[in-house]
Amino acid sequence: MDTQAPRPASKQKFYEVIRPGTNFPFVEQRRKYIWGSLVLLLLSAFFLGYNVVTRGAPLNWGVDFAGGSSVRLQLAKEVPVEDIRAALERLGYEGSKAVTVPGADGEVLLNVKEVVSIDAATLEKCKAAVSELDGAKLLGFHQPDGGSKIFLKYDAEPPWTELSRRINEAGCQGTVDKGFEVREGEVPVEVSLVGVGNRLAEQIDAEFGAGTVGRIVQAETVGAKVGDQLKIDGVKSLLYAMGFIFLYVMIRFDLRFAPGGIVALSHDAFITVGAFALTWKEFNLTTIAAILTIVGYSINDTIVVFDRVRERVALFRDEDIEVTTNRALNETLSRTILTSGTTLLSVFATYVMGSGSIADFSFALIVGITVGTYSSLFIATPVFLWVNKRFYGGKGHLQWRSDGPLGEPAGTERPVLAAEGGEIDESGRTADEVREADRAAAGDDDDGEAEPARVAVELGRSSAADAGDDAGDGGDDGPVPKASRRRRRRPQ
User: Fold this and answer.
1) Can you tell me whether residue 100 is helix, strand or coil?
2) pLDDT tens-digit series, residues 245-266
3) Per the CATH hierarchy, to which homologous superfamily does domain 30-55+226-392 belong?
4) Which of 229, 258, 440, 448 is geometrically suited to a Cys-Cys bond with 250, CB 3.0 to 4.6 A?
């Protein structure tokens, strides 16, 4: 019976976005990319200033920041929301929005920049009309500037029907409700004004036929002062987020890494704001949420890069730090492209399929993720290298101390990281401590009395046994360091 020799097994191949051994000159060409970022930052500042001169505001503030009214309508008949948007534009509501309310059949939410407008004379007339009501005396009458409510206080329970009739006849049209009791002996009353809501309902009925609007579900107004406060709170939220991220990076890594992370985050946030200034898209609280999301995503990417830089600087301390840093950037390049690329695909799909605030949120993420990936590679690490050179003399990754641990004679120098007693691996040990533990474990292993060492880090000169392994391959993460290959050969 004839038998055929078995065919040799074919080597399995995987698709690689970035081939192992790629050595893109990130560090060498850093000045070129820094200049590119400076151009983008200057363009962002230019468009913000240009908008102030030509349009009166640096950004297209939404209702949240500029003030305006939000009106929720129940439609009695079906009208496409696109037609309502077009009608609002024809009626002169610049920057208005109309969206369907999820989970509510036939309801639409309208946002316009107009606010409830009641002059001082009308307010005084309303106050006089409700000052005395069948034994209930008015103690307080107040409308916040541009607000959608009037707040009243009585010393006793007022007749609600009579109160509603009088205040509406006086010109302050709205619904009357009992407020939340704060002090004993006072009965609070809230009048929710629906001036803008009524006008919108009448105009939509005129556009699409009488009876189109079944009822006004809700009408609220944000005054200019409230909008200004929201702007301040939004800026504070960004500053607080960056401050805590700075502390985290400083504690998790090293003080040398923290400035690079903060510069990269500021870079990403400002360019994203510049993109909104260029496109004149509405800037609101949703946009602030998007920028905070970008800050979190960007620092995650930057930390992955910094972690590889720190690891390679520890393993290859005798090399120039710029060479080591460039190697680390190339080793994380595949991961960076794959992660950011897949995220951008989903965000871009949301941008194409979405509308209104969802599309604006997705637009901010598209710009921020793209710029954030760029800054992690081309901005954060050059800042780290500058800090290292400026404040550590360019040798921050390789310093020497002589405290003679592990039985070494006093005066024996050994290399450590920049921080005194700095760690070279996750175990927190220095180079000689790891080597000494390896020697001891290897000696015990020869006598059969101990298990082999589980961690072996080769930081000195290579032995003859390692010479043939220098061409080792580590897949998408690049060549495996000598220490890692040695660790793989040792029995576990």
Assistant:
1) strand
2) 888 877 777 777 888 888 888 8
3) Multidrug efflux transporter AcrB transmembrane domain (1.20.1640.10)
4) 258
